[in-house]
Amino acid sequence: MNLKRTFAFVAMCYCAFALSAQNLTSPDGNLKMNFSLNSNGAPVYELFFKDKTVIKPSTLGLELKREDPEKRIGFEWTERKDKERVDEKMNLMTGFKIKDTRTSTFDEVWRPVWGEESEIRNHYNELEVTLDQPENDRYIIIRFRLFNDGLGFRYEFPQQKNLNYFVIKEEHTQFAMTGDHTAFWISGDYDTQEYDYTTSRLSEIRGKMSAAVTENSSQYVFSQTGVQTALMMKTDDGLYINLHEAALKDYSCMSLNLDDKNMIFESWLTPDAKGDKGYMQTPCNSPWRTIIVSDDARNILASRITLNLNEPCKIEDTSWIHPVKYIGVWWDMITNKGTWAYTDELPSVKLGQTDYSQTKPNGKHSANTANVKRYIDFAAKHGFDAVLVEGWNQGWEDWFGKSKDYVFDFVTPYPDFDVEEIHRYAASKGIEMMMHHETSSSVRNYERHMDKAYQFMVDNGYHSVKSGYVGDIIPRGEHHYGQWMVDHYLYAVKKAADYKIMVNAHEAVRPTGLCRTYPNLIGNESARGTEYESFGGNNVNHTTILPFTRLIGGPMDYTPGIFEPDCSKMNPNNKSHARTTLARQLALYVTMYSPLQMAADVPENYERFMDAFQFIKDVAVDWDETKYLEAEPGEYITIARRAKNTNDWYVGCTAGYNGHVSKLSFDFLDPDKKYEAIIYADAKDASWDKNPQAYTITKKKVTSKSKMTLKAGIGGGYAISIKEIK
């Protein structure tokens, strides 16, 4: 839905000799990009921000897989006529000549189905460069879009006689840094992003890699200097640089490999089981490669490049897609107080053959009818939308680590979980149920059952699904972030849309803005979330980095709201302690944006702190306006958001190892209105490790002229609810 759309187009065609260099400037004039061909005919770009170099001259191109010269081709198995040229055909990096360039300007305002604001401006200047490779009689297009906040570019492969089907051996996109920047990074991995972030100089990545790689259920680290996007960096002269990708589909996920002698990052695609990195058929294109840059960290958070480089919404009727605030039967199992499995007697399960009625229940199975009703009652009493239940379906006794194909059928409940009664009871209370589909990464099995599973959801009143991909992928040898799995994740989202189901995918590839095109992709995990607070704890500054990295691509189902940080209170054998204050857990509902927000703790812990719980009840999950008040990656983030269709605002601050003192100005408020602010703050002696549950709640009248000083403790934060006085 466009409110305003202007389009100006200018085409310029020159002889090849006159097109040795091209320049592009952002609409506000702060960013400039140069494009040229070097002496080898290789595409080269460089990027500047306010006359400072951001990206030094960097080459672009792809290396294709060598075709077998002896392999017969075509249905008649005819002999190749180009045997002697198979090596030359691998090269999509050099030998180019500029055939054509076209420039254009685009400016629109579009309205997301849900989001951090009700309107998003999409304004850029574009350079389209057509590159001819005479040696192979083929051509490609490189398209650049320069926004006020950064650059996006991609490779396009038009259909043509000599470039139709091809296999990518490697993409050689370079990002040449100007120095030894400070980086906030996780290790390059084909299967997981569930790592704590390391803060270091680029030159230190190699030496810190082994400590940065912690154990995970599925992982494949590819290099001692490989890192994942979105990669956040800061230069010594105060520039903030973010490298990522947008619109990842029908292609492999991109990581970055660092040449730490020359400080040059190069794209590194995830391979398939054969080691190939992309099967392509023209016409096709790569995802966008993105560079967001500013001298103000707040502008990195405010950038909407990732969304703007995706296609508009393809779902015609979006009335069934809506933000959700939910609770769930989850945390007691994460802490190992309860279990997903129904019985401890079965070392092996075969669905359709195993008779659970003949087994002894373990007495700890959390997804039982009575317990779920308790959660439904709590949700209804406190105004939540939905209840998630994990461990409801048969098969959990041997679900993990067995490389098992037929692990779940997604429709058969355990004997103690009455699907029909839960449906009836939840509906009577006005509560939706959220389905859980753990696939155990047996993806082939999930696709076989998907239609039946989604129809089962529709029949039983489930409108959203949390899917999971724990463990190594089946088909064996595939990776979580390879082209095959990238296609699967999108297939699941599209199929869910056919049944009017919203998807919250965990352990999937990290988001790249596809939620604009398919807004029923309402959430993702794809990073180290709150569950790790029960597995040893997250770094204290973790939530001051994630908005600069993981959230650049889309919202995260971080599952905040843990009020009891001492996990031994849930399970005496669990010695983990969440590295957060209670007040910061409230702040995360504002700073960790998601239209899907969970109150992750158990009801009995909330009942101990009902005054603080009020903020979780009040805080919105959909927004008309967002203001980034303070930001420094690794240190602190303070954000204010205006709730959808109201004049009510919510503020959140999360702080790292040094705590933070905010000198807040409320100038974002309407100057003609008066408000009451409820401040949920760390107490003076609060810190994550010594006094995490110490907080204060105060009320104050505020206007747009008000100012306030607030302190967040170490690993702490604060949250403010601001409601208009009518």
UniProtKB/TrEMBL annotation:
Record-annotated Glycosyl-hydrolase 97 catalytic domain positions: 330-527
Regions annotated as coiled coil: none
The protein's required cofactors: Ca(2+)
Chain ranges of the Glycosyl-hydrolase 97 C-terminal oligomerisation domain: 622-723
Keywords: Calcium, Hydrolase, Signal
Annotated SUPFAM superfamilies: (Trans)glycosidases (SSF51445)
GO MF annotation: an example: hydrolase activity
Pfam families per UniProt: GH97_C, GH97_N, Glyco_hydro_97
Transmembrane segments: none
Span of the signal peptide: 1-20
Domain named Glycosyl-hydrolase 97 N-terminal: residues: 24-312
PANTHER family, per database record: GLUCAN 1,4-ALPHA-GLUCOSIDASE SUSB, GLUCAN 1,4-ALPHA-GLUCOSIDASE SUSB-RELATED
Complexes and interactors: Monomer.
Protein name according to UniProt: Glycoside hydrolase family 97 protein
